[in-house]
Structures are given as C-alpha cells and as structure tokens.
Amino acid sequence: MTMSRNQDSAVAVLAKIATEFSALTVSLPVFLNRALSVLGQELGMDNCVVALLDERGAGRLVVRAASGLAAARLGKPLHADVYARVMDSGRAELIPDPGPDTGPAFRSCVGAPIVVHGRAVGLLIAYRPHPGQFTEHDVNLMVVVARYFSSAIELARLHEQPLAGPQTDPLTDLESEPAFRDVLERELRRGQRHEEPTALLCLDIDGFAAIREKYDAVLQDTLVRNLAKLVRSVLRETDRVARSSSGLLLLLPRTPKRAGISVAERIRQRASTVVAESGPSITVSLGVGESPHDGAFAEALLTAARGALQEAQRQGGDRVQAARAAK
Asked: Which pLDDT does position 1 carry in this prediction?
C-alpha cells in the first residue's frame, strides 16, 4: 500500500478516525496516537509523528505522538532548523533530508503544518527510509490530514485547558504576556533563520511594592498607564510591548544588545516624567537580553532578561543591566 492514495481515500480514513475515536472522550495524546495508527493501516503512513510547540513557552517542537520506526522520537524535541520553513510559511513541503532527527533510519519526509487560529502550533510528518519516496501528491494528502488534526487539537484543548486569557491588558491596552510569548517565539525563529539579533527588555518600577502599600489603586493604575504610554512613544512601529505580572516586556526585532541597552537607557532617563496627581516620582530598572547569545528560545531569553532586571534592582535600581551571555 503506497502513500499516493487520492484525497477521497484520505477523507474516508478521516471519517473512520472521527467515528472510532473522539478527541472529546480521550486525552489528546491517546487520540493522536490512535489516529496515526489508522493512517498506517489505511494509507500506508507507517512512520509518522505529530510534534507540537512546547506548552511551557520554550519554542521547541516536541513529538507528542509517533508510529512505526518513528516511535523512538516520542517525547523528544525536533531540530527546528529542518522544519522552520514549514512552520514559518504555514505550507506543507517535501523535505529531502530530515537530518539529525532520524539518524540513518529515514532519508526523506513530508511535513504539513498543524494550524490553529492562523498560527502553526505543530507539524504532522511522515518518513520513508529512502530518498525521493514522496511526491507532490503525497504533500496534498498530508495537507488534508493535517487540517483534520488542527480541528481535533483545537477541540481537545478547549476541553482540556482553561479558556485563554484576554489578548490585551485592559488597563494599558498592551498585549498580554501569553500573546506576547507567541509573537516572541515566531520572531526568534525568524531572526535565527536570517541570522539577525533580537533584543528583549524586561522593565519594572523600582519599589512598586511600597507604592502599593502607601497609595490607592487609582494612583497605581495611573502610574502604570502613563509608563506604558512613555514606553510606546520610545519604540518603533515594528517593536512590541506587553504587560506581564511583573512589569513590562519589550521585543525589539533586528536589534543587537548594544542598541537594546540604548533604548532601555532612554526609557530609564524619562521615567521621572511619569507622575500621578499627589503621587511619588518613580524610577525604573531594565534587564536587556539578546537572542541567540542569551537564549535561543523564548523561555531561556525571558529568564536571562528577567535575571538581569533582578540584578539591576539588587544594585539599588534606577539602572539598566545587560544579561550575561549563556554558557
């Protein structure tokens, strides 16, 4: 049985999956593994994986379901460089050499993006042991299957996880941290592909805990709202800023650390202009990290920049601190 079945066959197989297994009655990993088993039995897709973006925000693709000889990859990350174009373009492709992910077992594969709400959240990949064993017809087949998986994953996540929080912060109208992390992950992949640096700044008001104790919520909100306006006035249109639980996060694409430090200094120097009626003047501290030197993935870069911010505040605040490069 070959991969080159027509799309009518694919639709029939998907109907069988939908009839036999429901993503709403079994866990997502169980559903995906059962679905891959059906693909192997009915379409000859014997060696497949489903890889999804790491839910912890690390930006890695991790294998969540696998079949056949590819089962050895279960739970392991994929090398992002091999599949970056499929993730970034959102289009299925033939991949002549899957490289270090599979060792000598496979010499060709086809990958299709799993897209939820317009964003690639993972990949459906089929492998073959010899070069040139997939055709454009197989690519089209994988697209049909991946689209079904996209719907199943979206439904399963709605039932397995709490509803996502708002995409913007109502006080400052800035992006929320979860939405910002999605943007950060995509920008880091893009920057690495084009060998361009990306700067990340973490900002916090010095001594804000004491301000909370002394002043009412209205004044606190005014300070935060005015600070957000100041930050936006300094940034470029291509930059992004979000409110997090511990301050503000600033993403500066195509920006090396030295330029990021310069932006941070401008914000720090202007922070004294952020005032609220009958309230205190404030100072701010900022930590500055750069990808890939301080972290190639979102979680690592955030950790580095936040560590630099904490160091700046330990040294008395009202300062900018660069992250130490990862070793």
From this structure: 40
